[in-house]
Amino acid sequence: MFAHGAISCQIDSPTRDVCIKEALQDMLPKLKNGMAYLNIPPLDPYTINDTTIEYKRGDIYAVLTLKTATFHGMSEAEIREVRTKIDDYGMSTEVDVFMPHLSAEGMYKANGRFNSLKINAKGAFNMKLKDTATTHKFKGVFETRDGERFLKIESYDVIPTIGDLKVQMTGIFQDPELNKIAVEFINQYWPLFYRDMIPETKAIWEPILLTQLNAFMLRLPINRMLF
């Protein structure tokens, strides 16, 4: 047992992946407030600060900075499937996660242009995401320290898809009607924007998640989770 009752799994069992899935699902509610002794920050809400995203497409160019963004609903995720491969040197893992409802709010700043129209915006935003599915892929190598074996994650990739997204934003334009039109435009064409922004957002998120994952994995021996 580890981490306040989380499940440990038998490494050679044919049901190892099912056991890991159950262990992760069991831990999610416990991660809501974080686990400081394992270097795990609060999961719900989850807050990021000062994240900058650049977007280019045709006549649209914008640099968007999320001054603060707080996400709600991650602790209610469903772990749908886990796939692992383990050898003498390391472990590769894929985890399919489904979140029926996510929401986020915060403050933003944006600069750019739309055709000949300059954008110099800042304000508040709120967004609601429905049916978000992600596949998390990570690979790690085993390290031995003080007689214990740890898993150091060397690569991390996350593939996200969103069923639906609704956004509310203030401050895009000072004129309320223009601001309303801009928000309606975003809500209508968000799949196009989202698809274009995936490489940019992954470049931001993946190093953050890799660092946080290793902060946990290099503190808790893997041989206590897989025996």
From TrEMBL:
Pfam families from the UniProt entry: JHBP (PF06585)
InterPro entries associated with the record: Haemolymph_juvenile_hormone-bd (IPR010562), To_sf (IPR038606)
GO cellular component: extracellular space
SMART domains xref list: JHBP
Domain of life: Eukaryota
Protein name according to UniProt: Circadian clock-controlled protein
Organism of derivation: Pseudolycoriella hygida
